[in-house]
Amino acid sequence: MRHFIKLLSSLDTGIIILVLLLICFIAGAIIMPSSELFEALYVIPLFYWLKESPFGLSWWLFLAIILTGLLVLNTVVCSLQSISKKSERKNFLLIISPQIMHLGFILIVIGHLSSSYGGSRQLFQIREGSWFEMADNSIVEVKEIILKQDSSGYITDMALKILHHSQRGREEYSVRPNRPFIYKGTGLYIKTSTLYPMKMALIEISHEPGAIPALAGALLFGGGNVILLILKIKKELALNRFSAKLSGII
Predict the structure, then answer these.
(1) CA 20 to 30 Å from 218, out of 167, 200, 234, 245?
(2) Residue ranges covered by each domain of the chain
(3) DSSP state, 203?
(4) Which residues contact 161 (CB under 8 A, 6 or more apart)?
């Protein structure tokens, strides 16, 4: 057990895992174009796809998931050891900022794995007057598809006016490409639209249970980087001031 923990706490182990992950992704880049089965990954959760797909096509994904789990363990063990070794230092930010980045990375992994297990994505072609159910059995009614064209006939803007029927009553929303409708963790996105042969739109309904952990992880990872950058700048300024004073004395 001690040897295993020692192995996990090694920076070299983390580097080896990253190299193996890179090899897995290179293998995936070669294998994926060879089969149309991978197209289903865009619309169904990863773990469900892995359960139904041939192992000869998916082995590199299984290996990548295992390696990612080992990388998370390596990150946790290294962080705990780093905190224990630096506990006597007075600069709290210098101790905690790398660990904030590590925590951010772990949350990003958890978020993506959560979406890969419990997420869903569906594409629908709709027209004005149609309706469909959300995951919670609430009803979305499409009142209007709004399309704007330029002089050449190209669509320059599009939107959906919808009525959402739920326990809260009937509420009206406007859905645009950069402004989806979100309800209880499920998003409704407008992807594309057309005027001919009739006014229609392609929409996506997706549920991403890992979106919040992934977002929190990204914020923590970015925050840790900013703190380290500020500390580095402060250190450089202090060294420059010291050099200037030393030059003045000499």
Answers:
(1) 234
(2) 2-119+222-242, 120-207
(3) E
(4) 142, 143, 144, 145, 146, 172, 173, 174, 175
Cβ count within 10 A of residue 224: 21
Identity at 203, one-letter amino acid code: I
How far, in Å, CA of 29 to CA of 70, rounded? 22
Tokens of 4: 């295993």
**CA-based nearest residue to 58, from 38, 74, 77:** 38
Structure tokens at 98: 């790398």
Model confidence pLDDT, tens digit, residues 51-68: 888 999 999 999 999 999
Amino acid (one-letter) located at 11? L
Burial (0-12, 13-18, 19+ Cβ within 10 Å), 185 = middle
pTM: 0.71
> Strand runs (DSSP E) across the chain, as ranges?
120-127, 131-133, 139-149, 155-166, 169-175, 181-183, 186-194, 200-207
